[in-house]
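User: Here's a protein and a ligand (zinc ion). What would the complex look like?
Assistant: Let me lay out the input and then the predicted complex.
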Amino acid sequence: MDQGVPKPVPDALLARLMAALGPKGCVTDAGEIAPFVVDERKLYRGRTPAVLRPASTAEVAEAVRLCAQARVAIVPQGGNTGLCGGATPHEWNAEIVLNLGRMNRVRALDALNYTITVEAGCILAQVQAAAADADRLFPLSLGAEGSCQIGGNLATNAGGVAVLRYGNARDLVLGLEVVLADGRVLDGLTGLRKDNTGYDLKQLFLGSEGTLGIITAAVLKLFPRPREQTTAICALEGPEQAVELLARVRADSGDMITGFELMNRQCIALATARVPGVPEPLASPAPYYVLVELSSAASASLLKETLEASLGAALEAGTITDAAIASNQAQGRAMWRLREAIPESQKIAGGGIKHDVSVPVSAVPAFIREAELRVRAELPAMRVFAFGHVGDGNVHFNLVWPEGEDREAFLARWPQFNRIVHDVAAGFGGSISAEHGIGRLKREEFLRYAQPIEVEMMKRIKAALDPLGLMNPGKVLPD
Ligand code: FAD
Ligand code: ZN
């Protein structure tokens, strides 16, 4: 437990919040609260006397002001799909959850400025759809897009499957509206692409996981909608060839790659065995696979021909051993379905010890080889699932419980396997959290690998923006 247990939430505060937000905006029924106090992976189960569901920025500001006055901490929450426990309150029933789900309006779309202004509680898929309706693309895309919220995406600086072309969530933001820890509103909803007037304050809140303020709205960048897309699955001997293939296809296509996902055989075997409607992608099994997608917004870009020629040359050079290019949209979607089934199948198989690391793209093969070797030296039967956004050097290196082993005993070795995998990543100059953030789960790991000067600067920023320590305490940094 972190330091002393805070005091319970005063009844007078709950009454004021109820008066300010109404019964729809202030949920106190234990049954209704239940889904808001447990995280996606069920690693944490917290307690809160109330879940606030404000419907406007003014209501968020008023709620934050009242909580600050009463010195009660707030846990901001979006779609609650985060993988690090950041949106879950602690166990001591002394924090209030503030969920943005009712703030789900698209405030504006400026097709000529290629921007969309959305409230934080918009579901990611809703933002994508609004952009598509205007013949534009909002490129952020990830497995949880049907339930995660844009506010959560920005608060975690989410990554996903299109980062190599369009960047992380952070790169897609032009302006931000934030309710600060004292309840004042920072209105930074600008749609400017150029603005060099001092510090870029919005960047502080992007990736801050609710520890500096509450994001209530954002101006996001849009792009031309792809007119042509082509997808393929390739078989390879190892991750070394995947990195070679990436360089080749980047060059051959003039950087048209929008997806480049690595999957080892374990991933494919489990996904095809456990998730209904997901067939083997190629005639015979291979040690590794890559899903590659090219996209172009031009009307006649000959993407399929380009990919065919590039993969043909890769086959001849021995970089790949087989490939299937989707001949229509449905086949392309089925290839992505296979990729999406990978985390699902691991959940079905009992879950396990996940790692979300990144290393320089060129170091991905050496990272995978060494981490696998060192993990197997400790537990030869370990099921190693290496997959992910290899185009960004981001590997999800997941260790799944070997069937027949004692599950509890396996999970008890979590810290030991974290240490091995994170040490290997750090040895290649990597990060222990490429896209999922720190939350509560990776706080100690973060403190272990960060430079002391980085942690000191973060603590100073936290103290400057949240002097009472009421914004999501105990997440990212120690309380
Ligand atoms: P939540 O889980 O509700 O919150 C996450 C953090 O942000 C918490 O610390 C919370 O306090 C804070 N927060 C939320 N909203 C706000 C706000 N408005 N203002 C301030 N702070 C806020 N992540 C990736 O990066 N890439 C992936 O490819 C990816 N794939 C996923 C696939 C699946 C199947 C699942 C379940 C998750 C995946 N994730 C992925 C993780 C997760 O979906 C993302 O991190 C997502 O961005 C979280 O959004 P959310 O709205 O659910 O946030
Ligand atoms: Zn991912």
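Summary: The chain has a mean pLDDT of 96.
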